[in-house]
Amino acid sequence: MRFQLSFGVVTLLMFSLFAVAPLLGILVYSYQENERSALANLERQVNRNMAETQQASVELIDSVARNMAIVAAVTAANPRQLRADSANNLLWHALIDADHIDAIYTSFEDGYHRVVSRIDADRRRSDPLIPGNANWHAGYIDAYAPGAARVRHRTFYAAWGEGTGNAYAEPTKLDLRQLPHYMAAKASGRFALGEPAINPDTGSLVMSLGTPVFSGGAFVGFVGTNITLANISAYLDEHRLSANSITLIYDQSGRLIAASHRDLMVPRNAAKEALPSLNDIADPTLAQAIGLRDQAVQHPHLFTDKSGQQFIVAGKPFPSQFGKDWEILTISPTDDFIGGLKETNRDIAAIIILIIAIELLFIGLVSRNISRRVSAITGEFKDIGQFNLSSTVPLRSIVREIASLNLSIESMKASLRSFGHYVPKDLVRSLLADGQEATLGGERRRLSLHFSDIANFTAISEGLSPEDLVEALKEYFELMTSAISDEGGTVDKFMGDGIMALYNAPSALPDHAIRACQSALNAQHRLSQSAGQRVEFRARIGLGIGDVVVGNMGTQERFAYTALGDAVNLASRLEGLNKVYGTSIMASEELRDETGNVFEWRRLDRVAVKGRQQGTVVYELLGRSGEVAASRLQARDAYEQGLACLWAGSVEEASQHFQAAAALRPGDLAADTLLERAERYTLAPPEAGWSGTEVMQQK
User: Which pairing describes strands 326-333 and 310-317: parallel, antiparallel, or unpaired?
Assistant: First the structure.
């Protein structure tokens, strides 16, 4: 069945299509374009911020490198000058030129080392020999000499050049020539950038830089510095893209170099020896953004976290000439930039939706009024399709076409009600449901068949006026028809006082044999309860089953729905045989076998009905199993024993059983008839043999 909608829904959909949809389209387009423009602007801001941050980080390194180059030039011009205490001033001035330089030093190939460094609270805590008021430190380590122990000499200052009275010397095995950035500067012959590390004295994240010193074309040592990477984190914090954005600098191994949120830079082990890592970040949104860093390096990427908040993440690698595989990553909530725009769009959307709702309400009220009337007409047609033709209250409408249609429906119902009196209603329902014109032809189908007429109808009709007879027949036919239709049977035709009914046609009934028997029992029961009616009728019913041809029979101009076949003829003959045996319901052996153990039966006889050459075993339907009186079953058993003896040639024994059956149920015509036959066979055996068919033919 095709998908269909009601008139009201169609009206609303049409309004939505031509009015609501354009408004929503404009709203969505405006929203998306505004958001797209805002996001494009955001991407430009992100890229610019990353470039500025990257440039600032590179400039931080370059500024230190320039100072180191000056010290290296001075050292190369006169290496011995850097071995004197007067060199401390040169190093100090280079140190204070940049706040992020933690220490600056020169180291030579013979192991001599001179350093100037800052003293902060972390350094003071790391060495109890450092005076509490010291802010600067200068020191040197002796060169290697045969047989002499190397000594580290340290002097501390509250203000540069003003001694604190605190100085000491101690043996040391520290060899600056083993430092990675020393070896890198020596090997490459140019500026070397070391790896980030945790300063063991302060616990701070630092990075070492080295510049080689050549004198006379030979490598004599290097100038080194330690810079505190916290300054880069401070810059990232001060130059955030937005209030809630986060910027990270990391290397390809995942180590964090700097972060705008300083709590991310805390070392993750108890000894504070391990560098913080991207993998240590527990925040789910940051972890989700970090997982997208490869895509973010290619192009700014939008994502939504578990809370439903949208973020933009963008990445940028440091230039190759920087010498480190660092990348910068920025994570920013888009609401920081387009939150106001979204609120404005939501307000506009709310206003448009309110307007649409008011319009839909008005359209809905109008369409509902029309739809209700169209639905009522649709319901009328559905009832007609199910052959429910009862009259309804006329539908009033100011729409002329609807009122006219309602009158046409009532006229159609009246015509179909008349048509239903001539044709089986199930057939009419089938025709209406299929929507096809009835045509000649039939199909082979297994049916259960019912034939019935009124016992002694001729005598009864002679005592009634034609008008009374018609009324009496009307009551009888209504009773019989209701019993048949209650079990799904279809009255095929009325034949004078007779009825022909079909089970399993035109509507399929899987248990049609049982239904045919039950409706016959119901009909006889209702007739027995009809005392007080105009005339008390007694019906004789014949039941059969078999394959027949059922369909429309006749000519192209006029035809009728009926069934044809041997089973039809047999059922008709069995109805007449009831008169011979004094029974009210007789059925064929095939029908009896079809019903299983649902009913109680009495095997009556084997007879040759008119039109058939072979004998047919016939049965009387007594009632449903468990509902038949024991005395009647006892009489039935005696009768069937007599019948078996008669067919076996034991005529005298058969007579005894028939006498017993007649005694148990006086007035049983079948028992009396078979007793008379047994006595007759005593005098003259049957020509067809004891097991043959009774030669008596139905008249």
Answer: antiparallel
**Is 100 in contact with 60 (CB distance < 8 Å)?**
yes
- Cα 136 to Cα 138: distance, rounded to the nearest angstrom: 7
pTM: 0.47
pLDDT in tens, 369-405: 666 766 666 666 666 655 566 666 565 666 666 666 6
Contact between 122 and 203 (Cβ < 8 Å)? yes
Q: What angle do CA 111, 115, 118 make, to 5 degrees?
A: 155
Res. 584: pLDDT tops 60:
yes
pLDDT digits (tens, 9 = 90+) for 533-549: 778 899 999 999 999 99
Structure tokens at 361: 């309400």
Closest to 95 in 3D by CA, of 73, 78, 71: 71
HSE on the CB side for 170, CA within 13 Å?
Answer: 8
Spatial contact of 553 and 564, defined as CB atoms under 8 Å apart: yes
Could you read off the pLDDT of 262-315 as tens digits, one per residue? 777 776 554 455 678 888 888 888 888 888 888 888 888 888 988 888 888 888
Closest residue by Cα to residue 159 from 127, 140, 139, 137: 137
Q: Measure the CA–CA gap between 664 and 223, rounded to whole angstroms.
A: 137
Is the separation of the CB atoms in 140 and 114 below 8 Å? yes
Distance CA 194, CA 184 (A): 8
Helix 335-385 × helix 400-420 angle, to 10° = 40
Exposure string of 130-151, with b = 16+ CB inside 10 Å and e = fewer, is beeebbbbbbbbbeeeeeeebe
Q: Is 460 left (phi over 0), alpha (psi -120 to 50) or beta?
A: alpha
Tokens of 574: 């069995």
d(CA 126, CA 102): 15
